């Protein structure tokens, strides 16, 4: 029987790498006289395969994704372009043209927008990929809200609490609607005076809901009820005293206090702090706008912050096109998001603080320049924008201004505030060029369509012009040079003076135009005081001459429009300006006499100021402003009488501040006056 062949070669043949006949012993070993051994072969260790090396393009893509994740806009590279300067730059905020190609702001996460019965809940975490919607709507299912929860909200936001009476003593909200004839008047007031400043309602849809609520008040959802009572409050707040008697049949303080209480109750009933209803958020925003003229800016800053967080919880920081929403819903969410962004921007400025960084971590497109009748909930696509002035233009102007300011911020930073315009890294020639481009853009898109016979168009024209002046003031702010220990160049002083004077003229024009009186409820004074200081500096520097005489007349007109603010006890900011006005007037009077001219007669407001300064005691309401700097009482004599030792005034010698030669600490003291003042009247006129 033949010997069976082995399944493998012998060890020696394998080592010598020769053919083996696989017999035991094999022919090769017999021929060579070697010992033949068959040892099963073992598989050697597999060589470790190196991971493929990441290519250059893959690295670039990965880095771009990381930058996008942190909010940096990546400009596309055109390989066929002639140069970098030929390629159009991406706007700081997404525009309509970029909607189809813009990537989500966070590609590493899988966001979800959960919609349920008019509410929306945004989730951008992978930790809850399959969470059922009922767990994302606590206390909004079958359980409802408890009184303890409402009391908790009252404690957190005491400004939104009721008048202290128990809930059982308050009449039901459904019984507090006005008569239908009064409702029609309030509607006209809202459309004319409130809606242009806060274009967050679709008026045709809201009107249908409002009429239905009046007809069947017992079946109104809590979020719609909150919106309706905020609508009542804002309409009443915009009325003057005489108009309120005519429309409502009551004096304004009484009806306004009652409407505030009703709006607060409605917001609490809607659970505004834990709401996922966009309608409730709209109600809250209109409520904040209505109480703004009588609310300190530091309180309003906190209340607006709640709106920011609620908006992010509802996913308003994500554009609706990425969330699969309808064109109508996407557009209305854009309007609301940009309104909240602008409100936080303005109140942050009043406190010399940066706006919430949450606002700029978004991909929300700017709203369209369309009227409400161009939009419908049944639309399958967005309408074409109008080349005209619409009720949404003020919102669009704010979008343009914010996008412009953001161009001055440092790379990888989202700091967007007025002081960003003073960025010394941007040459002044470049700033002038950029501001001119912005001005041309505003003229082309909006102002060219203004009809001077329209009150709204006049408002838009004044707001645009005054905001451009403010932009130039901050872009050429003297503090740029104070921070570097340099003297302000004459050409820079000329720019500051010209625009400060124009700003005062625009403010005077707004106050002197009777047709604009209906918008005065949203006109504050924050834009005024820096401009008045800069004009005062130039009047003090030039001292005499026809131009100086015109400056004193202009300052007199402005002071007369705000006479109550310059009385003793009005606040440290006004005390400081009053004192400096007296000093500058005394120097002007002495300069005119030195030229051999007759002594100029003192304007009435100067006589009033001197009479105020003759008061022996400082009013208790004038509080010392804590600046953190070296404080010592500051007293001056102006020839015609002593200037009151005012404890509210910055207490170190600020004589350099009145010559543009102030150092950084003195400018900080001036800014501290703004923060310390609190500005009980928010300035929605600011874009």
UniProtKB/TrEMBL annotation:
GO biological process: DNA-templated transcription
PROSITE patterns: ZN2_CY6_FUNGAL_1, ZN2_CY6_FUNGAL_2
Keywords tagged on the record: DNA-binding, Metal-binding, Nucleus, Transcription, Transcription regulation
Domain Zn(2)-C6 fungal-type: 9-38
InterPro entries: Sec_Metabolite_Reg, XnlR_reg_dom, Zn2-C6_fun-type_DNA-bd_sf, Zn2Cys6_DnaBD
Chief location of this protein within or outside the cell: nucleus
Superkingdom of source: Eukaryota
SUPFAM superfamilies: Zn2/Cys6 DNA-binding domain
Pfam families to which the protein is assigned, alphabetical: Fungal_trans, Zn_clus
Cell compartment(s), UniProt: Nucleus
Entry GO terms, CC: nucleus
GO MF annotation terms: DNA binding; DNA-binding transcription factor activity, RNA polymerase II-specific; zinc ion binding
Sequence segments annotated as region (Disordered): 76-106
Protein name: Zn(2)-C6 fungal-type domain-containing protein
């Amino acid at each position: 029987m033949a010997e069976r062949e082995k399944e493998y070669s012998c060890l020696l043949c394998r080592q010598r790498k020769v053919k083996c006949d696989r017999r035991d012993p094999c022919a090769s070993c017999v021929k060579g006289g070697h010992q033949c051994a068959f040892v099963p072969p073992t598989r050697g260790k597999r060589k470790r395969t190196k991971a493929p090396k990441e290519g250059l393009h893959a690295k670039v893509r990965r880095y771009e994704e990381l930058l996008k994740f942190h909010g940096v806009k990546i400009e596309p590279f055109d390989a066929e372009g002639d140069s970098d300067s030929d390629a159009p730059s991406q706007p700081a905020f997404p525009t309509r043209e970029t909607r189809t190609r813009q990537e989500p702001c966070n590609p590493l996460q899988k966001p979800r927008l959960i919609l349920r019965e008019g509410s929306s809940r945004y989730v951008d975490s992978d930790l809850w990929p399959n969470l059922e919607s009922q767990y994302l709507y606590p206390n909004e299912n079958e359980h409802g809200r408890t009184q303890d929860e409402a009391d908790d909200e009252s404690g957190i936001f005491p400004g939104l609490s009721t008048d202290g009476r128990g809930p059982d003593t308050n009449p039901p909200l459904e019984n507090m609607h006005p008569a239908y004839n009064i409702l029609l008047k309030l509607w006209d007031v809202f459309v004319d005076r409130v809606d242009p400043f806060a274009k967050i309602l679709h008026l045709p849809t809201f009107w249908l809901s409002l009429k239905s609520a009046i007809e069947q008040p017992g079946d109104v959802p809590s979020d719609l009820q909150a919106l309706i009572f905020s609508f009542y409050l804002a309409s009443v707040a915009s009325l003057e005293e005489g108009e309120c008697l005519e429309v409502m049949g009551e004096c304004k303080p009484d009806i306004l206090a009652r409407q505030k209480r009703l709006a607060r109750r409605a917001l609490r009933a809607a659970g505004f702090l834990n709401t996922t209803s966009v309608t409730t958020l709209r109600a809250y925003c209109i409520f904040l706008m209505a109480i703004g003229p009588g609310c300190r800016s530091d309180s309003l800053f906190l209340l607006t912050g709640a709106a920011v967080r609620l908006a992010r919880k509802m996913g308003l920081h994500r554009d609706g096109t990425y969330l699969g929403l309808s064109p109508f819903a996407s557009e209305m969410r854009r309007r609301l998001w940009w309104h909240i962004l602008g409100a936080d921007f303005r109140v942050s400025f009043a406190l010399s603080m940066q706006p919430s960084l949450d606002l700029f971590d978004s991909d929300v497109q700017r709203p369209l320049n369309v009227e409400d009748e161009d939009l419908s909930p049944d639309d399958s696509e967005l309408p074409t924008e109008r080349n005209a002035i619409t009720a949404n233009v003020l919102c669009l102007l704010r979008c343009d201004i914010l996008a412009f300011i953001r161009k001055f911020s440092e790379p990888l930073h989202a700091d967007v505030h007025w002081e960003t315009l003073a960025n010394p890294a941007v040459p002044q020639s470049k700033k002038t060029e950029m501001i001119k481009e912005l001005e041309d853009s505003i003229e082309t898109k909006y102002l060219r369509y203004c009809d001077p016979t329209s009150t709204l168009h006049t408002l838009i024209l004044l707001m645009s012009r005054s905001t451009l002046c403010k932009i130039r003031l901050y872009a050429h702010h003297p503090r740029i040079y104070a921070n570097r220990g340099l003297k302000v160049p004459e050409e820079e002083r000329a720019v500051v003076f010209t625009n400060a004077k124009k700003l005062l003229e625009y403010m005077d024009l707004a106050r002197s135009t009777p047709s604009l009186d209906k918008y005065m409820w949203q006109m504050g004074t924050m834009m005024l005081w820096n401009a008045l200081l800069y004009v005062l500096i130039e009047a003090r520097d030039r001292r005499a001459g026809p131009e100086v005489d015109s400056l004193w007349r202009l300052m007199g007109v402005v002071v007369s429009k705000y006479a109550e603010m310059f009385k003793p006890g009005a606040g440290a900011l006004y005390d400081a300006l009053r004192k400096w006005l007296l000093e500058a007037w005394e120097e002007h009077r002495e300069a005119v006499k030195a030229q051999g001219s007759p002594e100029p007669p003192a304007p009435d407001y100067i006589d009033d100021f001197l009479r105020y300064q003759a008061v022996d005691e400082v009013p208790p309401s004038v509080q010392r402003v804590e600046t953190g700097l070296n404080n010592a009482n500051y007293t001056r004599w102006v020839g015609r009488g002593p200037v009151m030792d005012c404890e509210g005034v910055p207490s170190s010698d600020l004589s350099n501040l009145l010559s543009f030669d102030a150092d950084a600490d003195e400018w900080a003291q001036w800014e501290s006056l703004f923060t310390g003042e609190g500005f009980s009247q928010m300035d929605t006129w600011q874009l």
